[in-house]
Amino acid sequence: MWDIRKVIVTLFFGGFLGVGLINPGPVNANALQYTLQDLEGKAQNLSQYRDRWVIVNFWATWCGPCIQEIPELMAFAASYPDEVYVVGIAFEKTPVEKIRSFVGELGISYPVLVIGEQPLVPMEPLKGLPSTFLISPKGQVVHSHVGPVTADQLAQWLAQRLEGESN
């Protein structure tokens, strides 16, 4: 169970102030081995995104910083349509109809899945919302961030990884 003091401190310092907690090191586990439901109730296997870089963003409808970063995630996805998939995971137990309506109101242009019952290791347990992960085409988490992100930050993470591959 979460210690409420840790949750409050993480959300305050990591989310509300926009100071992200960063863990840039690779994690040697397949972050794309999971199947989650989409907003239509269909099972979606995250491994379908394995041929490109993937941004996985955990968010919630009640999370102000999460909502703030959605346009940034959409802008990034639009800027890199052939290199990167952006996938949102609604991290809440809200009825799917409400999440679907919320997604429609905001015009979210990337796929949104609903969190399941099992933790998505190595990404979970989360340290706060929003949480964003850059996953390599091989399925490894190579960068993580707690707090809102910008399209420029995401582009920088990708550029650093692509540069590292070419060296």
* The CATH H-level homologous superfamily: Glutaredoxin
Reported by name, the CATH topology is Glutaredoxin
> Structural class of the helices, strands and pairings?
alpha+beta
- What fraction of residues sit in β-strands? 15-25%
Q: So what's the CATH class?
A: Alpha Beta
The total domain count is 1
- What is the string of helix and strand elements? HEEEEHEHEEEH
Strand adjacency order, main sheet: 1-8-7-4-5-6-2-3
CATH architecture: 3-Layer(aba) Sandwich
Give the CA-based shape. globular
Q: Biggest β-sheet, characterized?
A: 8 strands, mixed
Gap between N and C termini, in Å? 43 Å
| Stretches with pLDDT under 50, minimum 5 residues | 1-28
**If you average the pLDDT, what whole number results?**
83
Structural overview:
It contains four helices and eight strands, in the order αββββαβαβββα. It is α+β, with helices and mostly antiparallel strands and 167 residues long. A hairpin with a 4-residue loop joins β2 and β3. Helices cover 34% and strands 23% of the residues. The chain is globular. The protein starts with a helix and ends with a helix.
Compact overview of the structure:
This protein is of the alpha+beta class and 167 residues long. Helix content is 34%, strand content 23%. The protein has a single domain, classed as Glutaredoxin, CATH 3.40.30.
Write the layout of secondary structure elements.
Blueprint: H1 4-16, E1 21-23, E2 35-38, E3 43-45, E4 53-59, H2 64-79, E5 84-90, H3 96-106, E6 112-114, E7 131-135, E8 141-146, H4 151-166
Parallel strand pairs: 4-5, 5-6
Antiparallel strand pairs: 1-8, 2-3, 2-6, 4-7, 7-8
Helix pairs in contact: 2-4
